[in-house]
Amino acid sequence: MKELSRSKTIGLITFLVVVWGISWPIYKIALAYTPPLLFAGMRTLVGGFLLASLYVPKWKQIRWRENWQIYVLSSIFNFILFYALQTVGLLYMPSGLFSVIVYLQPVLVGIFAWVWLGEAMNAIKIMGLIIGFLGVAAVSAGGLSGHIAILGIILALLTSLAWSIGTVYVKKVSPRVDSIWLVAFQCIIGGIILTALGSSKEKWSDITWNAPYLFGLIFGIILGIAASWVVYFMLVNAGDASKVASYTFLVPLISVLSGTLLKYCHRYSSFSSIRVYRIAVWQCRSDLDIHYMYWYRCRIKH
């Protein structure tokens, strides 16, 4: 795939980190009204069919006989394991902390891309990735609250590992498959498996079809699944996998900030929206002011 222009790359990265950042607290809220596996399966499966329906005119690029193993393996790591572990893990710890642990992923991608793809790696790059992760954790620390379980931490680490392997695998096989159909089949295959697992272990009657659930589901289908994964693999295929992954360090920051805003909106629901915004920003501002420039310098060096 040809390289993207600088302006297009910046625009796609901005879209990606914002959508993924706000998705964590949105999913956390929706999970109060739905079993986790059914929620993950529904948004993934419907998102995959939506993407496939839009790309039907280019169905010849599927080449199923040649590429079915790629579709299945990538769906296992990037969707089945990633979304199953993520969705269940969010039940055991705050969305902000879970996202911070998951975004150890850029460090793992840097290592795996060096080993499997032969991408450049040196001590400075490794230190840059580690410092970037620690910087994000430090900035996010002020917004972390709630019950934390060991199981949640383990699930977050496994989520990060699965996503890292899936990202590097997709980068390795990208010359052999169409990226849009790859995302579509990952969603469809992963969605079928997750929905089947959910149907066997959970009850459809436990879903509460209210506004928070429907908003989380629709957001996940359109932006959280279909659009964001197309953008992510477009960026990965067009550039250095570890470098693209490093930009996702911004996601936990947005997750913590948006989660804080939503928490205060719920707690102070009788307040005006402007007042809620001011309260949340006042709560987060001190940590952001102290750590942001430190983190930014680390990213520039990297």
3D structure, described in words:
The chain is an all-alpha fold and 302 residues long. The protein has 12 helices and no strands. The longest helix is centred in the C-terminal third of the chain and has 29 residues, at 273-301.
Element layout with pairings:
Elements: H1 6-30, H2 36-54, H3 64-89, H4 95-102, H5 105-117, H6 123-140, H7 150-173, H8 179-201, H9 211-238, H10 241-247, H11 250-267, H12 273-301
Helix pairs in contact: 1-9, 1-11, 2-3, 2-8, 2-9, 3-7, 3-8, 4-6, 4-7, 4-11, 5-6, 5-7, 5-10, 6-11, 6-12, 8-9, 9-10, 11-12
Search tags:
single chain; 302 residues; mainly alpha; 12 helices; 79% helix; 0% strand
For the sheet with most strands, the description reads: none
State the share of residues found in helices, binned by percent.
over 70%
Number of strands: 0
Give, in order, the helices and strands: HHHHHHHHHHHH
Cα(first) to Cα(last) distance is: 24 Å
Strand content: under 5%
If helices are DSSP runs of H or I spanning 4 or more residues, what is the number of helices? 12
- Poorly predicted regions are 269-302
Q: Tell me, briefly, the overall form.
A: globular
* Cα radius of gyration in angstroms: 19 Å
Global structural class: mainly alpha
Q: What is the averaged pLDDT score?
A: 78
Short synopsis of the structure:
The protein is mainly alpha-helical and 302 residues long.
